Amino acid sequence: MPLIPEEPQIHESAQGPRVAPASGHSAPTPRPVPGPRPAASPRPGRPGPFRPTAPAQRAPHDAPAAVASTAPAVKPGPSAAPAAPVPSTPSAPASEAPAAPKVQLIPASAEGALDAAEEAVDLLLESGRAPGEVLVITTGDPHPWAAHELSFGEGPYWAQHDAGDDVFYADAAALSRAASRPVVVVAVNGGADTTTAAALSLALGRAGALLICCGDSQQINSALGAGV
Question: How many angstroms separate the CA atoms of 200 and 203, rounded?
Answer without folding.
Answer: 5
